[in-house]
Design a protein that fits this description.
single chain, 221 residues, alpha+beta, Glutaredoxin, Glutathione S-transferase Yfyf (Class Pi), Chain A, domain 2, 2 domains, 4-stranded mixed sheet, 9 helices, 8% strand
């Protein structure tokens, strides 16, 4: 796989970094992985050197030669536009709008509410317990998965994957979010379409290589 001068600043359990790793694999792009530990010693994302790369102090950040791209959705679209093989977005404007809508449902409306810094703020400022933080996470996950299930089940273009019979951008986001749902012990039975697509995706090597537990910075099992 060609590297093309790609470097990804990542963290093994970051959902946003996970989705970019999937996209890189689906497009057949090798990429140097630079771990940024989000918890150790207060979080390496806060040190000055990393803040110079990403002023938000978030992962992922993609470096392509001398160019820096931040925000996972922007990174995925950049990869898709820069490297033409194995497109992650479909051919027509209608299909692309549908896929972007599914992806943004997760990236904009579900994932940010369970982000590490949000959970840390709940604990620090409102004294939320571990149980309360998990209840918070499950609440927003349920709302998001209910909407996602409804949209996917109703769409005639839903196939083995979110759009048709090949994985794309929406699947890059769906799988990490379902991983989070399992992590927080959410019952997936009410979301059969979501669960079916997740199973198809996780059977593919591109998704398996991107999985949190497969990352070099993941703790030993």
């Amino acid at each position: 796989m060609p590297n093309e001068g790609l470097r990804l600043y990542t963290y093994w359990r970051s959902s946003a970094a996970y989705r970019v790793r999937i996209a890189l694999n689906l497009k057949g792009l090798a990429c140097e992985m630079v771990p940024v530990h989000l918890v150790r010693e207060g979080g390496e994302q806060h040190v000055a050197a990393y803040r110079g790369l990403n002023p938000q102090g978030l992962v992922p950040t993609l470096q392509h030669r001398q160019r820096l791209i931040r925000q996972s959705m922007a990174i995925i679209e950049y990869l898709d536009e820069t490297f033409n093989d194995q497109p992650l977005l479909p051919a027509t404007a209608r299909e692309r709008a549908h896929v972007r809508g599914l992806a943004q449902l997760i990236a904009c409306d579900v994932h940010p509410l369970g982000n590490l810094r949000v959970l840390q703020h709940l604990e620090r400022e409102f004294k939320a317990s571990a149980e309360q933080k998990e209840a918070w996470m499950r609440h927003w996950l349920v709302l998001g998965l209910e909407a996602l299930e409804s949209l996917l089940a109703a769409s005639p273009s839903t196939g083995d994957f979110c759009e048709g019979e090949r994985p794309g951008m929406a699947d890059c986001l769906l799988v990490p979010q379902v991983y989070n749902a399992r992590r927080f012990k959410l019952d997936l039975a009410p979301y059969p379409t979501v669960a079916r697509i997740d199973a198809h995706c996780r059977a593919l090597a591109a998704f398996q290589r991107a999985a949190p537990e497969a990352q070099p910075d993941a703790p030993p099992a």
